[in-house]
């Protein structure tokens, strides 16, 4: 799936991922390839991703919003 993580200052990440774990308002949740469409608010925490080459990346966020549609994850982070 395609993942774009954007902050007010810059593009934090843009690329493909096998999975992404997010700090949701009601607890953390994971998105996998071909996930159903969803929009959710995010709280302060860590965004963790597994990339196609099995590399792991993580980013600290203060909150934000995520939208998943057509196998694309758009995360607007504070």
Descriptive labels:
9 strands; 78 residues; 67% strand; four-stranded antiparallel beta sheet; mainly beta; ATP Synthase, domain 1
What do you see in this structure?
By secondary structure, this protein is mostly beta strands. It has one domain: F0F1 ATP synthase delta/epsilon subunit, N-terminal (ATP Synthase, domain 1, Sandwich). Helices cover 0% and strands 67% of the residues. The chain has strands spanning 2-6, 11-16, 19-24, 27-32, 38-42, 45-50, 56-61, 64-69, 72-77. The strands form 2 sheets. Strands 2-1-9-8-5 form a 5-stranded mixed sheet, with no helix packed on it. A 4-stranded antiparallel sheet has the order 4-3-6-7, with no helix packed on it. A hairpin with a 4-residue loop joins strand 1 (2-6) and strand 2. The protein is globular and about 25 Å long. The mean pLDDT is 96.
| Low-confidence segments | none
CATH class: Mainly Beta
- How many strand units? 9
Helix content range of the residues, please?
under 10%
What's the Cα radius of gyration? 11 Å
- Inertia-based shape: globular
What is the terminal separation in angstroms? Answer: 22 Å
* Whole-number total of structural domains: 1
Oligomeric assembly: single chain
Q: Mean pLDDT, rounded to whole units?
A: 96
Helix-strand category:
mainly beta
Number of helices: 0
Instruction: Tell me the strand order in the biggest sheet.
Output: 2-1-9-8-5
CATH topological fold name: ATP Synthase, domain 1
State the order of secondary-structure elements, H for helix, E for strand: EEEEEEEEE
How would you sum up this structure in a few lines?
Helix content is 0%, strand content 67%. It has no helices and nine strands.
């Amino acid at each position: 799936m395609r993942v774009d993580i954007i902050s007010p200052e810059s593009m934090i990440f843009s690329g493909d991922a096998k999975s992404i774990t997010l700090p949701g308002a009601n607890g953390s949740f994971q998105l996998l390839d071909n996930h159903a469409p969803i929009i959710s608010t995010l709280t302060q925490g860590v965004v963790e991703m597994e990339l196609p080459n099995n590399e792991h990346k993580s980013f600290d966020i203060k909150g934000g919003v995520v939208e998943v549609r057509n196998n694309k994850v758009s995360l607007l982070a504070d």
